[in-house]
């Protein structure tokens, strides 16, 4: 398997830099390419140049929030979207789904779970090759 | 109307000196003659609104640091890419500072709850502001050293003491100074000064740090509000500190003003009256006049209404 296909691209949209970098490190270690966006409008701007395979979208962000961003993305793309939120209420979940998200994860979330949920939404079910670590052990 | 019969009380909002005031209105015959009662329930209603604010905002405020602690612990336990020692140290320091943030959040919330619950009934005694400044500055040294920020204190000699509540004044200055240090650049300087001007004591806390954008200024004292400059700079906070400051200042019949410019720094000026301050109002609600039988009955009835209302707020729909 020398000629691996291009890595899966995940866009992480979260206003919290620490959450963004934890997810980036974890996903990078598993061979994903990560694009970070600091808020809804940053996400939309970046989507005009590159289309990721999955988007992880934080709901509570200043300015354009995750739900509204999700609705706007749905106007031009069916890219899988997982909403990340600190709210656990059922109504919040339903509103998220109404905005066209494919999944919903409540913070504090496990990185392992995020990766599993991302993997489940990737187009090809045989995506095991992307699970190889990006760096080799010493 | 039969003697002793009670007409259901009614909640109304009245304007008093341009401020909305929640009033519980009741009519009842206490035995001899009729009694019209007006109970000020503004504080109870405010406490109620405060509680719902807490529920909606606190879950988010708590979950964010929790999410970060959990994520970085997971990174530390991750078998992939776990061999880099400096990276591990970085993860640990993130966990450490987020734990501090949670601890701050808990103590700020407790301070806030205490202030909300006891608003207007804080005990006042003569306080030397010099002591407050010394205590708070000594306490802030550690935080300042860790951020490589110098604290410059200028307290005028022979300041008059003020009628104040020491714990509240400490909370006030601790938050102002804590913010000044937090928003300073490394190697920066903050100034704390106190002087006597006319009938007032002027307390100033100045920093030369990141400052506040103009658009954020009107919201500085809003609960859970975080300025955009702080968020962009990645400086953590709870959005409660300045709420505490404002309440502490108000409890002393003082005033607070701010001056801030993005990238230049921020200066808060607290003005506290040194004399001629109106005496602190005791618990609002029932005014005691134990000499008349009528007043005694009316007070008891007022008290019942008051506690009934409080019970109703705790369990809406029940009783009433």
Q: How would you characterize the overall build of this protein?
A:
The complex is a heterodimer of chains A (138) and B (320). With 138 residues, chain A is an alpha/beta fold. Chain A is 36% helix and 17% strand. A five-stranded parallel β-sheet of chain A has the order 2-1-3-4-5, with helices on both faces. In chain A, helix 2 packs parallel to helix 3. The longest helix of chain A has 13 residues. The two termini of chain A are 21 Å apart. The C terminus of chain A is likely disordered. Chain B is α+β, with helices and mostly antiparallel strands and 320 residues long. Chain B has two domains: 153 residues, Helix Hairpins; 158 residues, Heat Shock Protein 90 (2-Layer Sandwich). Helices cover 44% and strands 23% of the residues of chain B. In chain B, strand 2 and strand 3 form a beta hairpin. The longest helix of chain B is centred in the N-terminal third of the chain and has 36 residues. Chain B starts with 9 loop residues before the first strand and ends in a 6-residue tail after the last helix. About 5% of the residues of chain B have low confidence. Chains A and B meet through helix 1 of A and helix 1 of B.
Structure described in brief:
The complex is a heterodimer of chains A (138) and B (320). Chain A has helices at 17-29, 40-47, 66-74, 90-98, 111-121; strands at residues 9-13, 33-37, 54-58, 81-85, 103-106. Chain A has 138 residues and is of the alpha/beta class.
Strand content of chain B is 15-25%
Q: Kindly provide the radius of gyration of chain B, computed on alpha-carbon positions and rounded to a whole number of angstroms.
A: 25 Å
Largest interface: A-B, 27 and 22 residues
The figure for the number of domains of chain A is 1
Class of chain A in CATH?
A: Alpha Beta
Helix content of chain A: 25-40%
Mean pLDDT of chain A: 83
- The CATH superfamily of chain A turns out to be Response regulator
Termini Cα gap of chain B:
20 Å
Going across the biggest sheet of chain A, name each strand in turn: 2-1-3-4-5
- Helical residue percent of chain B? 40-55%
Give the low-confidence spans of chain B.
276-291
């Amino acid at each position: 398997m020398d000629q691996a296909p291009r890595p899966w691209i995940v866009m992480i949209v979260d206003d919290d830099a620490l959450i963004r970098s934890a997810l980036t490190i974890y996903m990078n270690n598993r061979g994903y390419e990560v694009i970070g966006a600091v808020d809804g409008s940053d996400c939309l701007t970046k989507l005009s140049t590159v289309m990721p395979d999955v988007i992880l979208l934080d709901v509570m962000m200043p300015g354009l929030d995750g739900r509204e961003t999700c609705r706007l993305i749905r106007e031009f793309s069916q890219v899988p979207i997982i909403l990340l939120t600190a709210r656990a209420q059922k109504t919040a979940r339903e509103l998220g789904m109404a905005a066209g998200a494919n999944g919903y994860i409540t913070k504090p979330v496990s990185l392992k779970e995020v990766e599993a949920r991302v993997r489940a939404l990737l187009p090809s079910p045989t995506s095991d090759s992307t699970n190889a670590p990006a760096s080799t052990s010493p | 109307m039969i003697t002793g019969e009670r007409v259901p009380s009614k909640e109304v909002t009245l304007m008093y000196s341009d401020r909305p005031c929640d009033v519980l209105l009741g009519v009842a015959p206490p035995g001899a003659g009729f009694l019209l009662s007006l109970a000020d329930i503004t504080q109870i209603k405010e406490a109620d609104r405060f509680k719902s604010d807490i529920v909606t905002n606190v879950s988010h405020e708590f979950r964010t640091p929790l999410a970060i602690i959990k994520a970085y612990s997971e990174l530390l336990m991750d078998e992939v890419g776990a061999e880099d020692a400096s990276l591990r140290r970085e993860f640990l320091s993130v966990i450490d500072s987020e734990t501090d943030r949670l601890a701050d959040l808990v103590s700020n919330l407790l301070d806030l709850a205490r202030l909300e619950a006891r608003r207007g009934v804080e005990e006042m005694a003569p306080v030397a502001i010099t002591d407050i400044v010394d205590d708070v500055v000594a306490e802030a040294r550690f935080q300042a050293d860790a951020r490589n920020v110098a604290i410059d204190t200028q307290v005028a000699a022979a300041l008059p003491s003020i009628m104040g509540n020491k714990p509240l004044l400490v909370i006030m200055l601790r938050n102002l100074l804590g913010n000044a240090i937090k928003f300073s650049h490394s190697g920066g300087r903050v100034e704390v000064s106190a002087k006597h001007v006319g009938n007032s004591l002027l307390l100033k806390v100045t920093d030369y740090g990141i400052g506040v954008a103009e658009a954020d200024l009107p919201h500085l004292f809003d609960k859970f509000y975080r300025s955009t400059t702080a968020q962009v700079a990645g400086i953590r906070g709870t959005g409660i500190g300045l709420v505490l400051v404002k309440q502490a200042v108000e409890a002393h019949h003082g005033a607070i003003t701010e001056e801030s410019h993005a990238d230049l720094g921020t200066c808060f000026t607290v003005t506290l009256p040194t004399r001629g301050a109106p005496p602190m109002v005791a618990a609002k609600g029932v005014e005691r006049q134990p000499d008349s039988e009528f007043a005694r009955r009316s007070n008891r009835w007022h008290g019942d209404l008051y506690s009934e209302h409080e019970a109703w707020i705790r369990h809406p729909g029940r009783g009433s």
